[in-house]
Write a structure and sequence with these properties.
The chain is α/β, with parallel strands linked by helices. The chain contains 17 helices and eight strands.
Length: 339
């Protein structure tokens, strides 16, 4: 392990863009399929992993939604979540803000309560045994109607003590942010913090429209913001964070290679970007692998890694006090590594 890889492995960090369904590793998918009697097109985990070849976001989503069919019981959602949190803790993720897609499950006849109880049981366990703090963000599927989104939003209100934020994900093309303006107004009124995917499939205009229409706290992906200099200046001036997912961006052909990724350029302009793993079971790496591959391809140095780790806590929905505690952890770690 080279020195930068070791530094990345140990630095305290937060993960802010992580779909829990996207952490379903092929081995666990096969296990749950057998446990629940769900027929899968993959005879084994190796075959499934080889099938994870994507040309764009939609080709990924087709397999992603197919795999979620194995998630049926509260125990399934617990197993899924505790596996991710165990992995994240091993990579020195100290805080995780986890997306979950209840509509992917309720539309299959799985009760909302089954989903949230399984996830929350794992979260409570991990908070104490793995010393990783968490917040849950319920994402609305944008390829469905706002009416359907509002129905799931109403169900979520009974679980506000467990759900901290509302997000927007799935297919960006043909599903503009204004389609969900009423839902996000309600989310703000109910005291949720809000985030939304934009500028992955969509252009810089999609990022701007999302900010103007939904008034979100941060943008998930947002890499096409660099097409608009005025937008970049606004992101810097207002310190609106972007949760960037390098491996995902390359696998889904947002960038052809990691060397072409604009992550370093955004960082140099002062955009508050963070590094995250998105759907690590499908895109070839968890958060440390995303840091390391970006660092190697874009020649990031230790100061860049420190800034990215600091950004991850600054961009989180944690209280100011908790942010400062984690930032002090980074400062101590960096100082110790220099000695």
């Amino acid at each position: 392990m080279n020195s930068l890889a070791g530094f990345i492995a140990g630095i305290p960090k937060a993960e802010l863009h992580l779909h829990i369904e996207g952490t379903l590793e092929p081995e666990l998918m096969i296990t749950l399929g057998k446990r629940n009697g769900v027929s899968l097109p993959f005879p084994d985990a190796e075959t499934a992993r080889k099938a994870y070849q994507f040309n764009d976001l939609q080709s990924f989503l087709d397999i992603y939604y197919q795999a979620t069919a194995v998630l049926i019981t509260e125990e399934d959602f617990y197993d899924l979540t505790i596996a991710y949190l165990t992995k994240a803790a091993s990579q020195h993720v100290r805080h995780a803000e986890i997306f979950f897609d209840p509509q992917s499950h309720t539309n299959r006849g799985i009760a909302f309560e089954t989903v949230i109880r399984g996830i929350e049981r794992a979260v409570v366990e991990a908070n104490s045994s793995l010393h990783i703090s968490t917040k849950l963000i319920m994402c609305i599927l944008r390829h469905l109607s706002e009416k359907e989104g509002l129905e799931i939003f109403e169900k979520a209100l009974a679980w506000k003590q467990w759900i901290a934020g509302i997000g927007l994900d799935s297919s960006e093309r043909g599903n503009p942010p204004e389609k969900f303006s009423t839902l996000f107004k309600k989310a703000h009124h109910e005291g949720f913090f809000t985030v939304a995917h934009a500028g992955e499939e969509g252009s810089a205009a999609s990022v701007r429209k999302t900010l103007e229409t939904l008034h979100v706290t941060r943008i998930d992906h947002g890499v096409h913001c660099m097409e608009d200099e005025e937008l970049v200046a606004e992101l810097v001036q207002k310190q609106i964070p972007l949760t960037v997912c390098p491996l995902s961006n390359v696998r889904l052909k947002v960038f052809e290679t990691m060397k072409q990724h604009n992550l370093k350029a955004m960082l140099q302009k002062g955009v508050c970007i963070t590094i995250n793993s998105d759907d690590p079971a499908y895109f070839g790496g968890y958060v440390n692998e995303n840091y390391l591959e970006a660092a190697n391809a874009l020649q990031l140095d230790r100061n860049d890694i420190i800034q990215l780790a600091q950004n991850s806590f600054i961009a989180s929905s944690l209280s100011t006090v908790h942010k400062q505690l984690y930032l002090h952890e980074i400062e101590r770690y960096s100082g110790n590594q220099s000695n």
